[in-house]
Amino acid sequence: MSTNDYLVLAGTFHGVHAITRTITPRIPVPSPPSSTSTTSYAFPNPGIPATGLEYLETEKFRLTCFQTLTGTKFLLFTDPLTTNIDVVMRKVYELYADYVMKNPFYQLEMPVRCEAFDRHLGGWLRGRT
Amino acid sequence: MSQHPRHSAMLSISTSNSNLANAGADKQQPSQNVSTPTQSSSPGLRVPSNRKTIYDRHLNRSRTAELSRASFAFLFSEMVTYAQRRVTGIQDLEKRLNEQGYPLGLRLLDLLFYRTMSSSTSSSLSSSSTSSSPPNRPLRILPLLHLIHGPLWRLLFQRSADALEHSVSPETPNEYMITDNDPLVNTYISVPREMSMLNCAAFVAGIIEGVCDGCGFEAKVSAHNQPTEMWPGRTVFLLRFGDSVMEREKVLERAGVR
């Protein structure tokens, strides 16, 4: 896949993710009778905000999405049988925070081209297998 | 007229508060050597609960204390970004980073001497002004280089530099190299490919230059990338001493000064 394909995928995924967030079913909240007639709705568990698409699974691969609190999304392509994906995601996030965000030459919102990030991630992945 | 009692009550409360604060301060005064009466008047500065800021601490005390690497990384990243504004090229950027480090080296030198001196001979503090005490200031190039390679590097990065070399070429006897396999300042920095000549350790080179100049050794210091398979961030600091230094070096050698 070329860089452009990645960008198209990211853009498409972002839209789908936003849609899946909004179609989360909600339940009506019984409003106090004194208030106006409009009924408000809430998620089944109000403490947890609605998450969007988290997994996309096909026969050959699985796409995992991890959204940070700042809204950055990491998409990881793995074999459907791979386990411990959250560990990998956490490490990717850690390395991203270290080697991308602390790099003065990285511009926000731009494709990540940081040699140290690639090197450390590659080294870590090689150490795992 | 009706407001007066309330006002006086407020006044009395505020005075009693300040009394309390003073009493608390008085209670802690005996335990600390340096009294800081003016600190309570600055609301912006956060004072630790034991009222000892980093400024009250003994210079030697914070020697083993460590700083957050992340905060340094962010600070340095901002420094590079700042230096990147209004520069024309890579050399200009390195020059700016060098200039940022230079005053730091000049100022660091005194602290370095103070610490190396007090750790070796703690009692010579009072008699340090006399020339009879062993010279703590390097007079020849080699002691200076050892000072940079060892104590300065330990002060800055908690470890010695990795190598110290003299130029093998006979045309440039004034060139020395100090190697750091993985400079702390470059840990999180990946330089884009189109600027591959750039090494942000030019900041450290500036510090070294400041130290050399502060010792009376006129020198130009630059940082160069020399990656190896094992150490992709290996950096060589090239020290080029001025002609006056080399002439003096010859005189001192004849005089037998070490």
Automatic annotation (TrEMBL), chain A:
GO terms for cellular component: endoplasmic reticulum; Golgi apparatus; TRAPP complex. Part of the multisubunit transport protein particle (TRAPP) complex. This is Trafficking protein particle complex subunit. Keywords: Endoplasmic reticulum, ER-Golgi transport, Golgi apparatus, Transport. Belongs to the TRAPP small subunits family. TRAPPC4 subfamily. Coiled coil: none annotated. InterPro entries: Longin-like_dom_sf (IPR011012), TRAPPC (IPR007233). It comes from Aspergillus sclerotialis. CDD domains: TRAPPC4_synbindin. SUPFAM superfamilies: SNARE-like (SSF64356). One of its GO terms (biological process) is endoplasmic reticulum to Golgi vesicle-mediated transport.
UniProtKB/TrEMBL annotation, chain B:
Gene3D superfamilies: Trafficking protein particle complex subunit 3. Residues 1-57 are annotated as: Disordered. Residues 11-21, 28-43 have a biased composition (Polar residues). It is found in: Endoplasmic reticulum; Golgi apparatus, cis-Golgi network. Belongs to the TRAPP small subunits family. BET3 subfamily. Its main location: endoplasmic reticulum. InterPro entries: NO_sig/Golgi_transp_ligand-bd (IPR024096), TRAPP-I_su5 (IPR016696), TRAPP_component (IPR007194). SUPFAM superfamilies: Ligand-binding domain in the NO signalling and Golgi transport (SSF111126). The lineage of its organism: Eukaryota, Fungi, Dikarya, Ascomycota, Pezizomycotina. One of its GO terms (biological process) is endoplasmic reticulum to Golgi vesicle-mediated transport. This is Trafficking protein particle complex subunit. Part of the multisubunit TRAPP (transport protein particle) complex. It comes from the Eukaryota. Plays a key role in the late stages of endoplasmic reticulum to Golgi traffic. Signal peptide: none annotated. The keyword Ligase does not apply. The keyword Transmembrane helix does not apply. Keywords: Endoplasmic reticulum, ER-Golgi transport, Golgi apparatus, Transport. It holds the Pfam family TRAPP. One of its GO terms (cellular component) is endoplasmic reticulum.
